[in-house]
Amino acid sequence: MTGANQPENAAERIDAVLFDYGMVLSGPADPAAWARLRAIGGLDEDSLHAAYWSLRHDYDRGALTGTTYWQAVAAHAGVAAFDQAQLAALKAADIDLWSQLNTPMVEWAGRLQRAGVRTGILSNIGDDIARGIVARHPWLAGFDHCSWSHAMRLAKPDPAIYIKTAQALRLAPSKILFIDDREENIAAAAAIAMPTLHYTTHASFEREMRARGLGLLLNAGLSGNDSQPTGEAHSSHALQHQPETAAK
Known about the structure:
Helix 3 crosses helix 5 and helix 6 crosses helix 8 (127-136). By secondary structure, the protein is of the alpha/beta class. The protein has two domains: 8-27 and 101-240, 3-Layer(aba) Sandwich (Rossmann fold), CATH 3.40.50.1000; 31-97. Strands 3-2-1-4-5 form a five-stranded parallel sheet, sandwiched between helices. It starts with 15 loop residues before the first strand and ends in an 8-residue tail after the last helix. The protein has 14 helices and five strands. The protein is 50% helix and 9% strand. The chain has helices at 21-25, 31-41, 45-54, 56-60, 66-77, 84-97, 103-114, 127-136, 149-152, 159-169, 183-190, 202-211, 215-218, 232-240; strands spanning 16-19, 118-123, 145-148, 176-180, 196-198. The model is unreliable at 1-7 and 226-248 (pLDDT under 50). Helix 11 (183-190) links the parallel strand 4 (176-180) and strand 5.
């Protein structure tokens, strides 16, 4: 959704909201967990930063597992291969790194679900992190579908991952509002006619939602807002809503 001037009933054209996980449902990376990664691996800041991010896309798209990713980090940084205790500690710290929540967005997702609006997650994420956050956050089971990139052997911004996720939600891309913090991921979704919103801060997110005529969707489930955000179809869907397993 690229235009800023959308009619107030724009919410009637949205049947699902698709969230990124990192930096949308979760908050920024935890500095304490990042410091643990450095200490466990015996790496300085520059070495860890370069290795962690240069190999991350391969981890996200399932070309590397958690174990092979961290051994590749060691090789990239020029240190000895990590032992089993180091690997376990690195994986645990990496889960902690992305486990701080963006509470306003998590709460909004819950309100949407209670109002009968379909919700999904589309996240670039490695196997061990996905398992860790699913185990830690039981509320993830409330989403109708979660696309974890490692399981799909695809990663954003590959167009195929958006198409497959829309198919899993059983909706045309044009009926799904996609929210992500990275511009390249937003652009790829928009290219298949999926309405999009670039998430930066929560205040700007709320302003943009209202400016685009999505105030009813934004206010779904709030006290005193009894109307369904997208009409009678959502009222009936609320009775049929059966979430799929979050780890799919």
